């Protein structure tokens, strides 16, 4: 949008003593002619912008025109910039980059992000993830229905939803919306969502029941499992659940007890430890794991 571009130009000029039209054009991804028109519009609006031609020339703010930058503390501004840079890792557009540029002080002595905190919310399929997120953002802003193919343990189904939120939780990205087929609110993992299509059909916003927006309720731990782990995988348990998630037995084994809901996910997780894990309870989970191991052994034999 033009107003966003004009504000970005002002922010750049307030941070730098002088900048050239080609530099602005490259940063804002527009032509030099567009920059020229934008500068004229800013001057007409009363902003004291000075343009100097020739070698060493450029565009600058007239001396004496300053912006009070003490609205936020150093720590507050740094936290905002860190969060924005994290979101920028999954944003395929340049809008977040421009916002970071507006807020970044001219001097690293004011706020430094070097060797501090880096948040990368992308994954190995960053390009497709960014496209999905940006399409869903458009759908949410414009209240437009989306359709997609969804891959799950039940096979491939085709869904139509009115999206409400894009959620990053449990180390993955999801879209939360009203599913037309189920006539209810659902969460869909973006990694399993493909052939996403933005339709022209609109949807109306309704009230979301409080229990539906409690995203943690989607992972209720309905049953308890007890597993005996080899001490060599202790670091993996600590990484995922913390050192308080298990107790050490006299022979050095790790006794792990935790609730679980999704059987398919739980089986994959247990089997990922190979012979370093033994399920003690419940009996049906132990039996299922044993059958999978025997079937796998038969295949390799």
TrEMBL record:
It comes from Sporomusa acidovorans (strain ATCC 49682 / DSM 3132 / Mol). This is HTH deoR-type domain-containing protein. The lineage of its organism: Bacteria, Bacillati, Bacillota, Negativicutes, Selenomonadales. It comes from the Bacteria. Residues 2-57 form the HTH deoR-type domain. It holds the Pfam family HTH_11. Transmembrane segments: none annotated. Keywords: Transcription, Transcription regulation.
